Amino acid sequence: MTEKLKGKNFPTLRFPGFEAEWEVKKLGDIMDFKVTNSFSRENLNYETGTVKNIHYGDIHTKFQTLFDVEQEKVPYINTDISLLRISEDFFCKEGDIVFADASEDLNDVGKSIEILNLRGEKVLAGLHTMLARPHKDYFHKGFNGFLLTSDNVRNQIKKEAQGSKVLSINVGRISKIELSIPSIEEQYKITVLLSLIDKRLATQRKIISHLQTSIRSYREKLLSQEIRFNNEKGNNFPEWETKKIKHILKIGSGRDYKHLDVGNIPVYGTGGVITFVNSFLYDGETVCIGRKGTIDKPMYFNGKLWTVDTLFYTHSFNNCIPKFIFQIFQRINWKEHNEASGVPSLSKNTIENISVTIPSVKEQTKIGDFLSSIDEKIETEKNILAQYELQKKYLLANLFA
Asked: Which end of the chain is more exposed for a tag (fewer CB within 10 A), N or C?
């Protein structure tokens, strides 16, 4: 790939054999906008119907950049709603772009999908969407999906967005967006590369999802004693005992860290690492649980750390293994123990008086090690996913003018 020459309109990265400058066109000059509907979630269902509907919320949270109706869960319009007045021209066609015209997040306003495959289904664009139909012969199928997520286009859309709490963009404003367009042949090369990256990302997410499903299943079966490990002689371990948490470990409270100097000791809150300081509150294996806010996401750590006052940590383990306790904590329905009507919260006393059933230390070790090995595999696969996401981000920033 070649580098961009100063003053020339083509991207930083380019496939060999392409030298022509990219053509610049305003979006409104090469796309026609079609009428959309305003059906709310109450007008939609996932069971029966003949026409499917793209809701703006699903563009924000669910749908892939290149939309394949067979690969997405798309709701139907309720059959008691008449669609006779909707022109055939307003139904989605392959190659169409559907924009979400509103969002509370600036990064999501104007987010779009390209209709790649409809598989014979009838689909409409719905509430808070704009349906754009590109002129023929300008775009290779799939190219627009990636072009419209590139930094250049997204930054223009953000500048055109209006509003305070809820941001929005209309047809008039999005029509002003300038698109840099290469030849159909170059579009094809870019589309193929980014589609391959997307397929790898989808595969990676499936791997993670499968592992997460597996560990939930194994955790439930092991902690309910539906399946059990045997000891080194092939016999059953001793029967499990029910104990209150306060009899097997102690709960420590986090503290303020702002008086500390910057260092390499992580400070953890309910959302993860906040900062790094030069002192530690605890050193060793521990399981943390939120005191306030996020109370249902236990975390396992091993090493020097500091926790803030919204995060409890455990210590002084008595005949129990931290890795096993972490699995037990993930099985507890913490929301059942919520003590507040507003922001969820737990007290030390509440946690200490929860009863748990635990096996011998040796069986705990086997269970903890087995489930931890899956947890570690999940983290490895998540790190691989993050690398692919960075690779795609880099390509989106450098493959488009």
From this structure: N
